[in-house]
Structure formats: structure tokens, C-alpha cells
Amino acid sequence: MAHPDTGVFGAIGAVLGYVGAEAATGQIFERLLWPQRSYISVTLKSIPIMAILMPMGGPLHIIALKTLDVMSFHGLFKGARVGHMLGTAFYPDQDWTYTSWTSNGQKIKTESMRNCLWVRALSYVPIPKFGCDTQQATDQTHGKPVLRSDQVRAKVAVSHLTLTRATKQDTESKIPFVNADVGRPAFQVFLAIFITESSAILTAVGVAVYFKSLWALWWLTPLLLRLVSAVFSVDRKPLELLDLTSPNEDICDYEIHCPQSEGNFMLLTGPKSVVQQFFVHYGHPVRNQFQETLQLAMLALFGFLFLFGLFFSVI
């Protein structure tokens, strides 16, 4: 016979599951399917944020169904090398556009931006605070200067990023280089996964010590699924070799058309061979049926994980 408190805990779990499932976003599975990009940079400042906000043991069934539904709509369930990755959690599409211009102001074309790394990075750059944000005004009553913040109606970030080809002097200097996020997951990626599931690891240890129950292993299931997903993550298309291109290539400007909600202005400048690849196939998944099938299985298991835990807790 079930314990009298089992029904209470089951009801509480159902309520938490409903609220938590509605709060989950698609970025959870974007990080799962591209761990090289999401977890390559671990700092002391980011560790508490990762440990508190990025575990995956909660109710993910709703967002998992939505993610799988989008993949089905893009034809990824029809067989090997069938369908399109762009627009799914494998390779999200920002749905922005850009216009390329020559150095003398001639318009070249307007195309979809797809999944441009640098535009995504610029969108996360915070708007700095300047002294002109608050202006001095004279109080008519006492004649004393006071600070007024109502002079600035709105702020718009103007971001201009220039990309160039690395020279021999650059490669031989002490300038720090950032590795591309398209190789196999490095040690930092697996370390970050353990950090994000640290709360589940501590809970599992507590359950094992206090209750001496094998159910403690259930708390480690999200960690196991994430490690398997990272080990068999899909390969990504790397940067193109630039040694075969002309070093005297014309410089172009790329005007990014940000949505109204973004409210910013972005401009990329550089040789076409350097900039254009970030708008085309850089980071696109390399089709592999085994890796894709395994990742789809991981998504389905994460969708069932909380439901299984809730079911086993009431029997």
C-alpha cells in the first residue's frame, strides 16, 4: 500500500510540472544539441548561474514535443540526409536579413542571415552607460543643480564589427585566439555539463546517504543523458580555408536588419570570403543518420523524464 503522503507529493509534483513545463524555452535543447557553442566558456562568474539556471531535470515534455514537432515539419524524420536542419534546434534560424554593400555604396543584395555567430554575439553586448544619460538642470525653487534622467528618451546601440584575415604577424604574436565552436566537445564542455547538474548530483548523494535507496540514481539520469548527447553530438561545418583567396579582396559592408523589438543598428565590415561564410554554412550540422537519430532519442527521453519520475513517485 502506498504511503499516505504519496498522494500529496504526487499532487505537488503535478502542479510544479505544469508550471515548470510552461516556463521552459527552446534554448534548453539548442544548448543540448550544440554543446560546443553553449558550454565552451566556463568562468568563475558563470558557475553559479549555470548551476542554478541550467539543470535539465525538470518538466520538459511540452517544449520537447514542440521541438520534435518542428523537426518533423522540416522533414528530419523521413530518413537519412532528408529534410532541412536550418530552423530547428540543431541549427536555429534568427529570421533576420542583411544587405551587403560595396565600399563605394553600391547595393549588392539582401539575403537571409540564417545563424550568424557574430550578429548573435553583438546582440548580447550590453549598452554602456554614459555621463550624458543624466543631465544637470537647475531647480527653480532653490537654485541648486539637480540630476534629471528624463532628457534621454531612448537608447540605440550602434555596433560596428570589422573582420579581417589573420596575418602571419597575428598568428606569431601573443594575441589570444578563440577556438571555433565546431570541433568535437572539449574537456570544458563536459566540465560545464557537470556544473549545470551539480544540484542533481548533490541531491542524489543526499538521497543515497539518508534514505539508502537506489532511487538516488534517478537524479543522475539527466546528467547521463547530457553526457551521451555531448559525446555523440553532430559534427559542424568549420570555417573555410582562406589561403586560396585573394589577399587584396574588396571590402564590403553588411547591414544587419534587426527587428523592431531589438532596436539596435549592426554593421559588419570585411572581405566577402571572411564575412560571408558566417551567413552561409558555418556551424551547419554535418548530416549523419546515427548521430541525428541518437539526438532525437535524447530529446524524447528528456520529454518523458519528469513524467516517469512523477509516475514512479506515486506508486
Structure description:
- With 315 residues, the protein is of the alpha+beta class.
- It has 2 domains: 1-91 and 185-232 and 286-315, no CATH class; 94-128 and 135-178 and 240-284, no CATH class.
- It is 41% helix and 12% strand.
- The chain contains 12 helices and 7 strands.
- It has helices spanning 6-23, 27-33, 35-38, 46-53, 61-73, 117-123, 168-172, 187-196, 198-210, 221-231, 272-279, 289-313, and strands at 97-101, 107-112, 135-138, 145-148, 158-162, 251-257, 265-271.
- The strands form 2 sheets. Strands 2-1-6-7-5 form a 5-stranded mixed beta sheet, with helices on one face.
- α1 packs antiparallel against α12 (289-313), α5 runs antiparallel to α12 (289-313) and α8 runs antiparallel to α10.
- It starts with 5 loop residues before the first helix and ends with a helix.
- The model has no long low-confidence stretch (mean pLDDT 85).
Provide a quick synopsis of the model.
This protein is α+β, with helices and mostly antiparallel strands. It has helices at 6-23, 27-33, 35-38, 46-53, 61-73, 117-123, 168-172, 187-196, 198-210, 221-231, 272-279, 289-313; strands spanning 97-101, 107-112, 135-138, 145-148, 158-162, 251-257, 265-271. The strands form 2 sheets. Strands 2-1-6-7-5 form a 5-stranded mixed β-sheet, with helices on one face. The chain has a two-stranded antiparallel ribbon with strand order 3-4.
